[in-house]
Write a structure and sequence with these properties.
Cytochrome Bc1 Complex, Chain D, domain 2; single chain; metal-binding; 12 helices; mainly alpha; elongated; Cyt_c-like_dom_sf; 302 residues
Length: 302
C-alpha cells in the first residue's frame, strides 16, 4: 500500500512539472513581439525559467532516488534471503548489500568467541577474531607496493634514488647557468656605461613611468621606494649597480626583479634615465636614504 502511494505521488509530481513547463512554453510563444521586453530582460527571464526547470528536474531526481530507497527498504526481508546465499555474500556486491542491510562484517571482520589456546594470562583471554578486511587488504597492498618499489629502484634501475636525482638536477642547473651566460650571474657586475642618446633616455623615461613610478613617483621623488634624484644611494649609484638593482631587485625590500620582464637594453635605458635626472630636485622629494656618492660622468653606449 505504501509503495503504491509513493508511486502515485511520483507520477503526480512528474505530471505537474511537465504541465508547468508546457504552460511556460505556450506563454512564451503567445507573447507578441511588439510587447517583448528588452534583450537583457528576456535573457533574465529565460535564465529564471531555466533555473526553475533545472530545480524541478533536480527535485524529481531526488524524489525518484528516495522512492527507490524506500522500495529497497520495504524489500529488506527478501534482500536478507539473497544476502544469506554464500556465493553472493562473498562477492563485493554482496558485501555492499550487507552494509545496506546493517551487517558490518564486511568492514570489521567476523567476531568469534573462541578463546585462543594458551592465551590466558592472569584472567585476561584473547579471542581469535578476524582482522578487519580493510586492514588486511591495505597490508597486502603495501606488500605489493614494496616489491614494485624495490624492483623499480634497486633491480631494474628504472627509477632514480634521491642522490641520483640531486646529481641530475645539479647538472641541469649547471647547463641552464651556462646558457644564461656570465652576465646573468647576480654576483658579478656588468661593465656597461650610461646611455645618453635622446631616444634611449626617452625610452627609459617611458619605461620608468610604466613600471617604476608607482613606488618611486612620477618624477622619481620617492614614495614607497627611495628618492632617485639625489646623491644618496642604498645599493650604489654607478650605472652597473643601478642596472644590477633593476635586474635582480632587492629581496625583502619590495624592489621587484625586472629580469625576464625587460630586456637588457630596456633595463640599461631605465638605469641611464635615472642617472640623467640626478639633481633635478622634484617637488615633495623624499628625504635622502643610503650613502652619498658622486654622480657618474662616464658616457658610452650599449
Amino acid at each position: 500500500m505504501l509503495t503504491r502511494k509513493v508511486t502515485l505521488g511520483a507520477l503526480l509530481a512528474l505530471s505537474t512539472l511537465l504541465t508547468s513547463a508546457s504552460a511556460l512554453a505556450q506563454d512564451a510563444a503567445a507573447a507578441p513581439a511588439a510587447e517583448a521586453a528588452t534583450q537583457a530582460a528576456d535573457t533574465g527571464a529565460d535564465l529564471t525559467a531555466m533555473l526553475w526547470l533545472m530545480g524541478g528536474l533536480s527535485a524529481l531526481i531526488v524524489f525518484i532516488l528516495l522512492l527507490m530507497f524506500g522500495l529497497l527498504w520495504q524489500m529488506r526481508p527478501l534482500l536478507w534471503k539473497v544476502y544469506e546465499i554464500p556465493t553472493i555474500r562473498e562477492q563485493w556486491y554482496g558485501r555492499a548489500l550487507g552494509l545496506f542491510l546493517g551487517d558490518t562484517v564486511g568492514l570489521t571482520g567476523e567476531y568469534k568467541k573462541d578463546v585462543m589456546a594458551g592465551h590466558d594470562y592472569d584472567g585476561i583471554t584473547e579471542y581469535d577474531n578476524d582482522l578487519p578486511p580493510w586492514w588486511k587488504y591495505g597490508f597486502y597492498l603495501t606488500i605489493v607496493f614494496g616489491v614494485a618499489y624495490f624492483i623499480h629502484f634497486h633491480v631494474t634501475d628504472t627509477g632514480k634514488l634521491s642522490d641520483a636525482e640531486y646529481q641530475s638536477e645539479m647538472a641541469e642547473a649547471a647547463l641552464m647557468a651556462a646558457k644564461l651566460g656570465a652576465n646573468d650571474d647576480p654576483n658579478k657586475l656588468t661593465t656597461y656605461q650610461p646611455l645618453t642618446a635622446p631616444a634611449d633616455i626617452d625610452a627609459g623615461k617611458t619605461l620608468f613611468a610604466q613600471n617604476c613610478a608607482a613606488c618611486h613617483g612620477q618624477s622619481a621623488e620617492g614614495k614607497v621606494g627611495p628618492n632617485l634624484t639625489d646623491e644618496y644611494w642604498l645599493h650604489g649609484g654607478e650605472v652597473n649597480k643601478v642596472y644590477h638593482t633593476v635586474k635582480y631587485g632587492v629581496q625583502g625590500k619590495g624592489m621587484v626583479a625586472w629580469k625576464g620582464k625587460l630586456s637588457s637594453k630596456q633595463m640599461l635605458q631605465v638605469s641611464s634615465y635615472i642617472l640623467s635626472i640626478q639633481g633635478s630636485k622634484p617637488a615633495n622629494a623624499k628625504a635622502p636614504q643610503g650613502e652619498k656618492e658622486a654622480p657618474a660622468k662616464s658616457v658610452a653606449k650599449l
